[in-house]
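Entry 14. Structure prediction run on the chain below.
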Amino acid sequence: MTAIATLLGTWQGILVDGAFVFLRIGALMALLPAFGERTVPARVRLVLAILFTVVVTPLSDGVRAPVDPALYLARGGIEIVVGLALGLALRLIFLSLQMAGTIAANVVSLSQILGGVSVDPQPAMGHILAVAGLALAVIHGLHLKAIHALVESYAVFPGNVAPPAAALAEWGTARVAQSFALAFSLSAPFVIASVIYNLALGAINRAMPQLMVAFVGAPAITMGGLVLLFLCGPMILSVWLAAFDAVLADPFGTR
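Output returned:
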C-alpha cells in the first residue's frame, strides 16, 4: 500500500503540473498562427495542445504546482494570461502580414477584385501573403520554435508569479506598434509605386485635360500591382519570416 500511495502521489503531481502547462499551451493555441486558425477543427487543436503539453512539461523548470490547493485558481489564471500574451505577440506579427497585403491591395486598386474566400474577409493580395507566410513558418519548424518559446517562457514567468500589469501593458503597446510599423514597411514598395503613379497621372491629366486618364491608368496600376507582387513577394515574405522568428526567439523582449 505504501508503494501504491507513493506511486499515486507521484503521478498526481505530474498530472497537476501537466494540467497547468496545458492551460498555458491551450491559451497559446487559441492565437498561434497556423495551428490556431479558425479553419483548423477544434479537435485537432485539442490534440495538438495535449501533444505540446506532453513535450513541454518535462522540459520546463518552475512548473511545479503550488502546495496549497487554494492557490490552484490563481496559478491557473497566471498560466492563461501568460499563454494569451505569448500567443498575442505571435498573432500580431502575423496580422502585420495581412495588414501589409491590405495596404498594398488598396493602393494598387486590387482591394475589390480577385477576392479570396477565407474566414477573415480580406483582399486577395493579403490572402496570398498570409497563406504563403503560414506555409513558410510551418516549413521552417514553427512547432519546434513554439515549444522552445514555451519552455523559455517559464524562465520569465514560472507560473507562481503574476506578470506586472504595467509592464504587460507597456509590452503589449510596443508589440502593437511593432506590428503596424512592420506592416507599413512590408507594403512600402506598393505605396511608393502608387505615389509615383498618381503623380504621373496628375501630370498627364494637367497636360491633356481631354484625355480620360483614369480609363488609361487603371489597367496600368492593376498590372503594376501584380508585377510588384511577383517581384517583391519573396522579399516581403523573407523579411516577415525573420521578424516572426525574432519574436518567437524572444517574445517578451528580455534579451
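The chain has a mean pLDDT of 83.
Filed with the rest of this week's runs.
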